[in-house]
Design a protein that fits this description.
Layout (H helix, E strand, L loop, with lengths): L1 E8 L3 H12 L4 E4 L13 E2 L13 H19 L4 E2 L3 E4 L3 H10 L9 E6 L10 E4 L3 E3 L1 H14 L3 E2 L8 E2 L2 E2 L2 E8 L17 E12 L8 E3 L3 E4 L5 E4 L13 H14 L4 E13 L6 E4 L6 E5 L5 H18 L21
Parallel strand pairs: 1-2, 1-12, 2-9, 5-14, 12-19
Antiparallel strand pairs: 3-8, 4-8, 5-7, 6-7, 10-11, 11-12, 13-16, 13-17, 14-15, 15-16, 18-19
């Protein structure tokens, strides 16, 4: 029988960042990975404190940016690589009114820490009205982060590369593993979890393109008009992603493919080749808050889910909150606590 402090089920941002908290605090654990790339591993990895459609920010933006920076520095120590790309997002303005709105927002207390009042005109692309850059923005090298992190876990005998079978849980053990806490970080896989299947996590499907540009950019920054465009390690570019909250089949949506092509053509006036199209299902919640908490009957079972489109920021920030809750008894924020669903009739505890 193997004894560990924790079992983690899931290898997306929730599982990865919670595993980091355990590594940092010298806790023993096993992380179960099915080997299938979920929404996290095909995500853009963009770090953005601003909603660039409305020029607003969101709950805990500054705190989450600060925490993520600390967490990525901690991860760099044992993985040996820097995955944080400190290249700003540049928002391409649609017209003068949008540009004026941006400028007015830079003078507000809420957005002055994020929106740069100085505008830039870029080469290669169509940006007649210029661009505005987002301070404290950037992105994560998603592909290498996940590859290196999972490889590190495997080399330290902390990774189990197989499907997790929920029916094999018995009190405080799973098969031949005894645990103190088991944390489900399954994303949309929670629908097949008999302990938390009634939690209302909504799939938000997102598509993105991998493209080869005939005229490469003269910079390494991230562009945003309708979607994000940025360079990747192999010389191609990521362009995406879409948001489709309606439940769709598990296949490529040709309407979303066309949406992406037209969106890129709107500001990139040169030829490009589509090398790949990928998609994933982000786990979202109606109130746009993560779901963290203990099962009301099975006290060793916990959930960490619903990170949504801000999986990186939510994952880094709330993995620390969850760890402090489990190890030190720190109260969970009511906004993210699983208990907020207790009085809803569709949840059966």
């Amino acid at each position: 029988m193997k004894n560990v402090d924790y079992i983690i089920v899931g290898d997306g941002y929730a599982g990865l960042f919670f595993a980091h908290q355990l590594i940092k605090n010298n806790k023993s654990f096993k992380l179960f990975s099915s080997g299938k790339k979920g929404a996290s591993q095909v995500s853009a990895g963009v770090i953005n404190p601003v909603v660039l459609k409305k020029f607003t920010t969101f709950w805990l933006a500054s705190e989450q940016i600060e925490t993520l920076t600390e967490v990525m520095s901690e991860i760099q120590i044992y993985l040996g690589n820097n995955y944080l790309i400190n290249e700003r997002i540049y928002r391409i303005f649609h017209d003068e009114n949008e540009k004026s709105l941006w400028l007015s927002k830079t003078k507000t207390e809420e957005l002055s820490p994020f929106l740069d009042p100085n505008f830039t005109t870029l080469d290669i692309i169509n940006n007649l009205f210029g661009t505005g850059s987002v301070k404290t923005s950037g992105r994560i090298d998603v592909e290498n982060l996940f590859a290196d992190f999972l490889s590190f876990l495997k080399s330290n005998d902390s990774l189990i590369e197989e499907d997790f079978i929920h029916s094999n849980i018995s009190e405080d053990n799973y098969q031949d593993i005894t645990f103190k806490h088991l944390v489900f970080c399954e994303g949309m896989g929670v629908r097949q979890n008999p302990f938390f299947s009634d939690i209302e996590v909504i799939p938000n499907k997102g598509h993105h393109l991998k493209v080869k540009l005939s005229k490469p950019m003269l910079h390494q920054l991230t562009l945003k008009k309708k979607h994000f465009l940025f360079p990747q390690n192999d010389g191609s570019y990521y362009y995406g992603g879409t948001y489709d909250p309606n439940e769709r089949e598990n296949e490529i949506d040709e309407f979303k493919r066309e949406e992406l092509i037209l969106g890129l053509q709107e500001f990139y006036p040169h030829n490009f080749e589509i090398a790949e199209i990928n998609y994933g299902f982000r786990p979202t919640v109606k109130d746009r808050r993560p779901i963290i908490g203990q099962h009301p009957d099975h006290k060793k079972l916990y959930i960490f889910n619903g990170l949504g489109a801000r999986g990186i920021l939510n994952g880094a920030y709330f993995s620390r909150e969850l760890f402090d809750h489990l190890e030190f008894g720190k109260e969970l924020m009511p906004e993210v606590d699983l208990k907020r669903f207790e009085n809803k009739k569709h949840i059966r505890f």
